[in-house]
Design brief:
The structure holds two protein chains of two kinds. Chain A is elongated and about 90 Å long. Chain A is an alpha/beta fold. Chain A is built from ten helices and eleven strands. In chain A, α6 packs parallel to α7. A six-stranded mixed sheet of chain A has the order 6-5-4-7-8-11, with helices on both faces. Chain A starts with a helix and ends in a 5-residue tail after the last helix. Chain B contains ten helices and 30 strands. In chain B, a hairpin with a 5-residue loop joins β25 and β26. A nine-stranded mixed sheet of chain B has the order 15-14-16-17-22-21-20-18-19, covered by helices on one side. In chain B, about 20% of the residues lie in helices and about 30% in strands. By secondary structure, chain B is α/β, with parallel strands linked by helices. The chains are: A alpha/beta, B alpha/beta. Chains A and B meet through β9, β10 and α9 of A and β1 and α2 of B. β9 of chain A pairs parallel with β1 of chain B, so a sheet runs across the interface.
Amino acid sequence: MVQESLLFSEEFLRQLEHLTMLTRRPVAGHLRGHHRSRRTGSGMVFTDYRPYSPGDDTRNLDWGTYLRLDRLILRLFEEEADLPVYIFLDVSRSMNFGTPSKFDFARKFAAALAYISLINHDRVSIVAFSDGVISEMPARRGKNQVWRALHFLERIEAGGGTSLQSAFRSFFSARRTRGLTVVISDFLDREGFEQSFQVIRRFRHDVFAVHLMSPDELDPVLADEVLLVDSEEGGAARVRVTPELVKAYHDTFLRYCTEIEAFCRSHGWGYLRTTTTTPFEDLMLKALREQGLLR
Amino acid sequence: MNLLSASPPWAAFAALAAALVVTVLYLLKPPPRRLLVPSSLIWDRVLRESHRSSDRLRWWLSLLLAAVIAVSIVVAVTRPQFTGAGEAADRLVLVLDNSPTLATRTTDGATRWSHALAKARTTLAAHGPGTQVMLVDTMRRIATPGFEYRDAALERMRQLHVAYGGTPRVPDIVQAGEIETVVISDGVQITGVPKSARLESVFEPVENAGITAFEVRRLPADPRRYQAFVEVSNAGGVDKSIDIVIAGVGGRRIARTVNVPAGGARAQVIDISSLEAGPVRASLSMPGDGLEADDVAYAMLPMRRVVRVGLVSNGNPYLEKALRAQPRVRLTTISARGFAERRDIDVWVFDRFAPATRPGAPALMFRPNSVSWLPTPGMEIADVSVVALDGAHPLLENLSLRDLVVERAVATRPATGVAERDVVLVGARGDMALVVAHEDAPRRVSFAFGLEDSNFALHAEFPLFLGNALDWLAGERGAFAAGLGVVEVPVAKARIVAPDGTELPAQAIPGGTLFEVSEPGMFTAISSSQRLRVAANLLDRRVTDVNRSPLAPLQSLAIEPPQSPRFPLDPWVALLLASALLLVFEWWTWNRRVTE
């Protein structure tokens, strides 16, 4: 089941190979890549001049200026670096819900993003988190690392509660190169998403939030009086279901989603809300392109 | 819908129990279905915002409504009787006279019984609904009177009616001074009214004439002819000329007009030989007659066919001549030696002879010899004197055997030689049976003595006895005479058919059947082996005399109609409807759920 969910067709993979991850901010990659960085170097895009210092590459001296002004001026170029992509995958118990489950859908989604990034020589880290970091695939680069990434995704299992804040704190407490952080989650975090995202914001990462939900969550089918049991915390709430209450739930759920989206938009981050019944190809080839994550 | 009428404490207890049951059922409701959700984060928000406290409130409201509904239903069913303000919760013994004279019509077209019911309702209305009422009737149709609430007594009163049979009497009820006793009667037949009781009169003098005796008799001199004896009484205050009509089968009628003085009676003997055999109906007509039940009477005119008699004797010329002298007898004489069972004989007469096996036809036996199917004869006794006679038996009709002398007889003791259904017609000293009528089919009459051993054959009544015996043995008897009311007929497990062909409810008793008759008529009791006509007649001068009352006449003949309720619905029905509405409301407020 897991194997099947992570396998893509050859045609789809070829289509994915034409895509590239985008970030709105200059990256700080250490290796040469295809993304703009703040560093100057041997790129193609001219950025500035500065006086020559001994040891500089003489190939970048502006000889025309030297002839006119008799001064050695060095031409600076924007260096193109690789993009560090941090894929945060929510593996809490709440993700193991719905048909198909959000967890399987999220793994597939992460696999596709990892594939696109690795094809484009970006450095990909995959972090499985619930109420902390559960497991982490260290940064990998290159197309030949695709199968490692898939193998990592296949091995992880759903469990535990949800704490975005602990996961982000734990992961970013180590020095991480600024890059693109993709968070795939249902964001059902009692600690609140604002506080959690403040951690990423401090490190000035570009963020793209993929809000995953099951159709049953949006429009639950309930009958009579039910005892709702929280899959993560085990708490129970006795609910006598009326049409008014179902409508109130629907409205509250949508409001919660809107709050997350508004927060992301206000910080210039990308946000995509999707359900597990959305055709995966459409999501990757259309929706993500429209939201500016892929090109 | 008057199932119960509970006392307030019992009703309160039942209501409390119902409320308790509802509460327990609410608490015992099955736990809700567990449903695993990814997170209760959103639900917590929803429930916080939708004022969860209202759920609890609604639960209590629902419980309250359910309890109110249950209590309402219990109260509607038990119908507790509460004493209203200013009304005394006292006790009342109400005695209703439902003797036959209460069926007498009053000048307003109603009956004394209608007036009695109206007076009873008025009496009950004067008391509060909480009053304990014991309703008693003088004809004891209420088998076990007891104190009950007013509405229950009214309901019981609606089922009461004028009854016949027996003597009306105020039962031995409580006569203590603190219990009010009201007797409502016309005072004609009632006895035993307690002195402390208040007597309410429904008496009104009316003109009434009735048949007080009616009988069909055979002429002793000529058994082929019949006459009807009719006695008519006039209970009115003036002399009356009353038309009597006797109608038989086929519409033949014989009419007579009789002048009956006021308060007197006149008897008429009418030859009805011209009528066909079958039911005979005597009726009288008089304008303004008060009581209908005594205006008709029924009797049975027996069939008069030829009876084939077989005399088995070794020679008894006197008996042979006496039998031949019977007008309907076709006699065949057979010697004892030449006896053989024959189908063309209706009645056997055995003279000092008994066949070895029981004969198939009824038999008259004079001193039969000892055979196995007859009781063992006792010792022969001499100079037997007659000490007991059953004069009411049809065999001894119009006979007097006081001077019967028996020289020799082989008498048996009834305890040893007489079966339960046999009747000892003539007995002797020492509890000896001389003449026994055996009822079991085929019937037989056994003489313990021979004709030559007594002077019976020399009696002038002997031919009459032979006639009676042949009629009885041939099964040609008249109808069973009965009064109105509960009738007991000597036919076991019989069904009773009314004159109009309908079957009456009947109750089997050992050796007979009981049924109730409320108007004169000719009924038929039919069992598997017997068919008996029953002429039920009033024929009671005490009833016909409807004006013999010491009570004062009614002051007003106006009957107050029963008060119609101001509210179109019975309050208990209204309470049930309210419960149904509350049930719908309860469902709407609480149990309306999403059940997709």
